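REQUEST ID: PR-0412
SUBMITTED BY: lab tech R.K.
PRIORITY: routine
TASK: structure prediction, single protein chain
INPUT:
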Amino acid sequence: MAKPKQKFYVVWHGRSTGIFESWDECKQRVEGFEGAKYKSFEDKSEAIVAFRMGATAFYAKQPQNKTIATNSPNGPITPSWAVDAACSGVPGPMEYQGVDVLTGKKLFHLGPIPDGTNNVGEFLAIVHALALLQQMGNTTMPIYSDSITAISWVRRKKANTKMALTARNAKLFELIERAERWLNNNTFRNRIIKWDTQNWGEIPADFGRK
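STATUS: complete
OUTPUT:
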């Protein structure tokens, strides 16, 4: 059996910063650390350059269009939006964002918020996209998510999270309640579609921290 490919983890903002050679080392620096910024690389020299640049400069230099070619009849619908969430630990600091599938332009971002989960983040991101599109009067823009769970929660108009309410995650529960209230008080025609990761690669809204 082939060995897993070596990865190098850059931590720009965490309990300590640097370049680490295992996810466990990286996780110790970022898990539970609010506002942590980190990314994995398959080439050490790329990791060194990225670390020296700093997170802001590194992401500013990244190509805006992160999607595959969309001319294919088997590719994603365009124009469309994509959403994704990232969470350090379960639960842990969670953030989500939405991007334009065709251009890769970031449309919105929220977080990090303490003690969240990926599914909750994906649920909130989908509702955020729906509400924003409604404000724009756009009832036809499809929304892609790679979370079947979050899509099902939106369809049921209820986030079926098992998390218990605590002082640390009170803000998150406020956002969940607001999203559920929006779903119950509004109608939408925008299609919510599962992103085909196997054939299209990572969703364009992915935070790139795997």
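NOTES: The two ends are 22 Å apart (CA to CA).
REVIEWED BY: pending
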